[in-house]
Amino acid sequence: xxxxxxxxxxxxxxxxxxxxxxxxxxxxxxxxxxxxxxxxxxxxxxxxxxxxxxxxxxxxxxxxxxxxxxxxxxxxxxxxxxxxxxxxxxxxxxxxxxxxxxxxxxxxxxxxxxxxxxxxxxxxxxxxxxxxxxxxxxxxxxxxxxxxxxxxxxxxxxxxxxxxxxxxxxxxxxxxxxxxxxxxxxxxxxxxxxxxxxxxxxxxxxxxxxxxxxxxxxxxxxxxxxxxxxxxxxxxxxxxxxxxxxxxxxxxxxxxxxxxxxxxxxxxxxxxxxxxxxxxxxxxxxxxxxxxxxxxxxxxxxxxxxxxxxxxxxxxxxxxxxxxxxxxxxxxxxxxxxxxxxxxxxxxxxxxxxxxxxxxxxxxxxxxxxxxxxxxxxxxxxxxxxxxxxxxxxxxxxxxxxxxxxxxxxxxxxxxxxxxxxxxxxxxxxxxxxxxxxxxxxxxxxxxxxxxxxxxxxxxxxxxxxxxxxxxxxxxxxxxxxxxxxxx
Length: 488
Prior knowledge:
CATH class of the largest domain: Alpha Beta
Largest sheet: 9 strands, mixed
CATH superfamily of the largest domain: Glycosidases
Helix content: 25-40%
Strand order of the largest sheet: 2-1-22-19-18-17-3-20-21
Radius of gyration: 28 Å
Low-confidence stretches: 1-39
Shape: globular
Distance between the termini: 64 Å
Mean pLDDT: 92
Strand content: 25-35%
């Protein structure tokens, strides 16, 4: 027993001696002038915050705890070099289309859940994703319960004075927008029509047909009345497109309009109508797929129409995202917008995350787009509402069940990886593509650097992020996406 006690005391003495030596070393000099060893474990500071979504959905927009510190230790990994000395387009925002169907399912939530959801989507607090751009339909889209315009008339009747014009059938969208604007007063709103009133069309039908030339001026006044009516509700329409998907006449609703017809409508009717009514809303052409860059180029080539036009809008159901750069190179003083891409009910989380980050977010930005929008913000568990003949497989960023349960789908995370970190007024800056690492970089109005990276390869990749002569080393699993943020 005595022997055991002596051993315990002896061990305690050694422990105290070690603690005293450690304390003495940490408080003393580290230049070797005393007998204490230098501190070889300095405190490592985190320089880069990162947020991760994994392709298998096991991690969803989660802030990572790993420490990323800028240093100068070299290695043989691929390097993404970010250079804020080279700048490109300014950014208007990221978001969705607030369809009539989206507003319908969101507005069915009880007041508490609806308010919390809108805050999460459009706010800028820790748990919000900061959506900064919305597209809305002028009249119904195919993701409304039924087709309508703002001046529908009985068969055989017309309304050339637009005395029947009213927007109250869109009260659900208007109410949602008004509440969103209380959360984010600076959100950008783009309006796009799916069809003119059928009495203005050559087939007198919501599906297909073309605008009759004798109604060009009346239809221009229709746009004027829409912008003024929304303004009276406290909603500023920042921009409009002339026609959603003008070469696709099979949707319900839809309308066909050639490039030459768009140019004529703008230069002889819509442009002068906006000027005469002091309307500053931007006019955007095309609003269709990347397989036909010649369409917007043709409209922009018209010397009379051109001054009225702000830019061109694109979808990517056909073609390649580089079409935006084709148009930019043809008319570098005009803006580019990416306004629609849906995720399908038949898709998978991993494939959609990978493809949409590469093309819709990173691809559109690297090809001069000022925004990037996924299609429908929300629908129910049956992919409704939609018109008869409208899209039956378009999955919303959110699924809101009839019982009020909210599911955040892949579209939510596709947009959130940009919208949460790249606010209105940010500017794209230079970054190189390195192997499978698709990426795009920005500088925010607050001066932060933001880098979005998607691993388009089939295996995990270690890589460097180099900035201002220093770099951090990190890794990203196959098909996953991460957003990195740091102060210069």
